[in-house]
Amino acid sequence: MRVAKETVVAIEYTLKDDQGNIIDASGDRGPMEYLHGAQNIIPGLEQGVDGLVAGDTKSVLVPPQLGYGEYSEKLLQLVPLNAFGANTPQIGMRFHAETNLGMRVLTIKKIEGEEVTLDGNHELAGKTLHFDIKVVSVRAAELTELSHGHPHQSGGCCGGGGCGSGESSSEGGCCSTGEASEGGCCSSEEGASAGGCCSTEQPVAQKQGGCGSAGCGCSA
Ligand SMILES: [Zn+2]
Description:
Layout: E1 7-16, E2 22-25, E3 32-35, H1 43-49, E4 57-62, E5 76-80, E6 94-99, E7 102-112, E8 115-119, E9 129-140, H2 143-148, H3 189-193
Antiparallel strand pairs: 1-2, 1-3, 1-9, 4-9, 5-8, 6-7, 7-8
The chain binds zinc ion.
């Protein structure tokens, strides 16, 4: 079976930057599974996988506009330190928040006096991505997968990501559909430091938002 719309595809991949540094790899996590044609992964990678069959390997070059977009200064914003309430902001901490561009993952970029600079750019914005991929399997998607817009194989809706494990769910954690401005996944003690949804544990090839690709909420 060839990779096409409405197939569930598992790929192994290594992602490098322009200098050849490895940014991410499926490695120990195992293959990344996604629903093809459902915008689960960045467009450039999806285009690169299209039409392949299991066993195929390929190098896929993804320019920023087909990856995580160009870096935009407009996505930087200043907020007062006291906006964090009882939480202590730290540089590099990430959380979901509502912005004038919709839900974004914001990274704390700078803390200066009473001012905190938040960066709404994806960490890979502006970067050309070099993927080496191998197609592990291709299968037809189940009807429920099509209706949910994501695969259901490897551990339910969140697909082995850090969500659904409890801690942050009560206040709109990473698996919620929004309203996380007062308790995004990194606001709980565990979220920020120990591999919550906002950490780099998430496969980099998946698009941000919700739990990896999916935006959860299904019981499958
Ligand atoms: Zn689902």
